[in-house]
Every structure is written in structure tokens, then in C-alpha cells.
User: Fold this.
Amino acid sequence: RGEDVRITATIYTSDTSVIAEDITGWAMTLEIMTTDNGAVLIGKTVGDGITLTDPTDGICTLLLSSTDTNRTPRAYHYTLSRTDLGSKTMLAYGSFRIKSPTVGGV
Assistant:
């Protein structure tokens, strides 16, 4: 909670593939919500929290700032989507937990 978080993700050509997708020039969004399909609390796009780190190998970096993660400790839902070419394609979805800060380094 209240920390910068950097996540590296690799986009593959399909759910069962080990071949990385070339994501050069892609527009992408990361949306974080309290419930599945709920109101978006945090939105990130390429150039604003999403970096195409090594696009020919399908690698992007997602950055959540300490302000983004300074939220009530609980489970949150996310979607990572490709948003160009006139259609929204979900690339990944799931949940993660923001924890209470550790007191005293324990």
C-alpha cells in the first residue's frame, strides 16, 4: 500500500502459446476496479503508466505509482487490453491484493 509498483508482462500470440506477440505500435489500457466490470478507479495507457519495453518480444511494463496504490487494503480486479484497430481486445484479467503496510519492518 502506498508504494510504487512495476510489473513486467509478456504478451503471447495465444493463451496456449509460448511465442511472443509483436506489440510494436499497440495502444493498450490497464484498468483497475473494485469489482469485476465495476467502475474504473485507475486507468493507464501507453505513455502514461504503460511502456512498450521490448515490443518485438511482446514485453511491456506497467507502472502503478504510490498514489495509485494508496488505497484501502482489499482485492482489486484488473484488465489489460489492446485498444487500437477499432476494437478492444482483452489480453489479461484477474485480481490482486493491496495489503496493509507492515509496521516496524516485520
The chain is about 5% helix and 45% strand.
